[in-house]
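This protein record is not my work; I was only asked to verify it. Where you disagree with what is written, explain briefly why. This is what I was given:
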Amino acid sequence: CSAYGAHGNSYRFCGTQGQMENVRGTDDKIMLRYNDWDIPEGLEEINSAAFRGCTNLEEVVFPSTLTYVGSNVFNGCTSLSSVNIPSTVQGLPSSLFSGCISLTSIEIPASINELPTNLFDGCTSLSSVKLNEGLTTINDYVFNGCTKLLSLEIPSTVSTLTAHAFGGCYAEIS
């Protein structure tokens, strides 16, 4: 099981049982389908590597209450093709989507001002990325190995674009 918490609540993801449960001593269990996860409203944090290596995970819907996501949360989730990032999230950690080879598109909300190292490293199916105004920094290897990403519009607010942000990616940058 992987654990993650909201202020005052703790949740545990149990992949083999296909459920998320409140572990504050109550018997409340939220039954969820294994391939699609609607994270419950009220959850504010997802700790590092919570879903790492969940190869059957296809879609995740974050609640509007989410503010923090730890590193490597979806690293190696090879079937993940759809995820939303709510505007309540204030930052993204490194390697969040590394190795998500089925991820095809994503929108980065305006609340995010920096794309960290290896964010989409090895996302070989990623072909559409929407970056919003407010983004200021794109770090090394963010789009490393994103071979299907053919074009990307960089917002005018970006002031730092590192030399290796697009390693192994042949996107036309505008």
